[in-house]
Task: inverse folding
């Protein structure tokens, strides 16, 4: 029997061959989170294929566990390096950057492992991890306040630029301006980059329409204590009576007092009042008369008696029995993790997957410093 050869067009032949071109990510590009440094195409293709290939997905999870285990087993001089390698790989292997990637818990455990180490407080790599962690939280201002209170990254201009941009996005223009000036006064490096960013901020502030935000309200209204008169009032209505009073004082005119014509009639007939109160008040009286509501003399309480039985009351617990205090498991784990440090946290990350990892990510987004000891938090 003769073999029949079928000629296929180039496109159909390529589809039947199932060859890889490196452009498979084109089918999933709407689910890829962009990165400034770019991405590894080969790792990106494998990561996207794991969405439909369970075996490949299992391989990625196993690799993540090995990288986390390598953090605990590291014995070198730079313990931050394995954290950086793990974070970079997770960013590449989980391009959507969702809650199941475990990136946010890794960020949190990394920054918590070195926040008290003076060696890394001025390390730019460590500061960038903090800034990436702040981008994944609901309220990044808490993190910036923590960094400033603990003097982390205060020598780098990227801290002040990111902090000021965040305040500008919240319409806190005055606070953002103070942050820029604080960074320039501290000579944060590179200082040229900080000054250029500050000039751009000034240009944006000039073009920005005036809004009744928090900073503008504080700047427009002077601070005063109770009983003082506000100054610097520039409104037209408030200035007119003041000018008139000055003119009256200059002319030497007396101040006329308004007298109600119906005052005598109202005092003549008030059935609810005693007759002594209808008279005009010509004398203020002594202090004892003015404080007449305090004339009541304390007396001895003799109507109620407290029973002093020596026997135990019915239903009362014995004196030697201790009352057990209920402690929530979640709060107990929080206190334990906050006191033990970062190594036990990395061990915990290997045990949580799926829904637990998603829940942990949501909790950290809401409160990024929930596992930090209270003594280090800004006040």
Result:
């Amino acid at each position: 029997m003769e073999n029949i050869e079928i000629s296929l067009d180039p496109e159909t032949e390529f589809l039947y061959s199932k060859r890889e071109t490196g452009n498979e990510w084109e089918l999933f590009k709407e689910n890829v989170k962009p990165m400034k440094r770019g991405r590894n195409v080969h790792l990106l293709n494998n990561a996207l294929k794991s969405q439909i290939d369970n075996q490949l997905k299992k391989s990625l999870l196993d690799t993540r566990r090995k990288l986390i285990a390598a953090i605990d087993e590291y014995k070198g001089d730079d313990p931050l390096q394995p954290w950086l390698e793990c974070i970079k790989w997770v960013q590449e292997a989980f391009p959507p950057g969702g809650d199941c990637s475990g990136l946010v818990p890794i960020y949190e455990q990394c920054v918590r492992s070195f926040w008290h180490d003076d060696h890394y407080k001025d390390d730019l790599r460590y500061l960038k991890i903090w800034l990436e962690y702040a981008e994944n939280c609901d309220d990044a201002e808490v993190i910036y306040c923590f960094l400033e209170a603990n003097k982390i990254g205060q020598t780098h201009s990227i801290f002040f630029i990111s902090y000021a941009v965040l305040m500008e996005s919240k319409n806190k223009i005055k606070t953002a301006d103070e942050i820029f000036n604080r960074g320039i006064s501290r000579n944060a490096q590179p200082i040229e980059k900080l000054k250029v960013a500050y000039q751009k901020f000034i240009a944006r502030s000039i073009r920005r329409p005036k809004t009744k935000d928090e900073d503008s309200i504080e700047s427009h209204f002077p601070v005063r204590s109770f009983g003082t008169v506000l100054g610097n009032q520039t409104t037209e209505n408030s200035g007119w009576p003041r000018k008139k009073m000055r003119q009256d004082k200059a002319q030497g005119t007396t101040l006329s007092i308004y007298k109600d014509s119906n005052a005598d009639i109202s005092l003549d007939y008030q059935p609810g009042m005693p007759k002594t109160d209808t008279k005009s008040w010509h004398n203020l009286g002594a202090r004892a008369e003015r404080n007449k509501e305090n004339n009541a003399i304390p007396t001895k309480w003799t109507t109620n008696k407290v029973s002093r039985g020596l026997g135990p009351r019915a239903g009362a617990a014995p004196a030697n029995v201790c009352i057990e205090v209920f402690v929530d498991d979640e709060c107990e784990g929080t206190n334990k993790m906050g006191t033990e440090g970062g190594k036990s946290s990395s061990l915990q990350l290997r045990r949580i997957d799926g829904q637990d990892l998603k829940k942990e990510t949501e909790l950290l987004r809401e409160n990024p410093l929930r596992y930090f000891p209270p003594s280090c938090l800004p006040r």
